[in-house]
Amino acid sequence: MTISAQAVRPRRPGQWMGPGALGSLGVGTGFAIAAGLANPEKEVITATARSR
């Protein structure tokens, strides 16, 4: 489970999209767009960060 999923607990199946155990950079925006298109009646949230 990703760090984000530990902070924001998914309540039901189908409410969380993640890159899997290996992780990946830069997938959050694409996941949010896909989730919004698949579920236009629901609110979609994505979290991004910039490391230095």
How would you portray this structure in words?
- This protein has 52 residues and is mostly helical.
- It has a domain at 24-52.
- The chain is 31% helix and 0% strand.
- The chain has two helices and no strands.
- It has helices at 3-7, 28-38.
- The N and C termini lie far apart (24 Å).
- 0% of the residues are buried.
- The mean pLDDT is 75.
Could you give a short description of this structure?
The protein is mainly alpha-helical and 52 residues long.
Q: What proportion strand?
A: under 5%
Query: Could you tell me how far the N terminus lies from the C terminus, measured between alpha carbons in angstroms?
Result: 24 Å
Using only C-alpha atoms, the radius of gyration works out to 11 Å
- Major sheet summary line: none
Q: What is the arithmetic mean of pLDDT?
A: 75
Number of helices: 2
Class derived from helix and strand content: mainly alpha
Helix content: 25-40%
Shape: globular
**Element-level helix/strand string:** HH
Could you list the spans in which at least 5 consecutive residues all have pLDDT below 50?
Answer: none
- Count of beta strands: 0
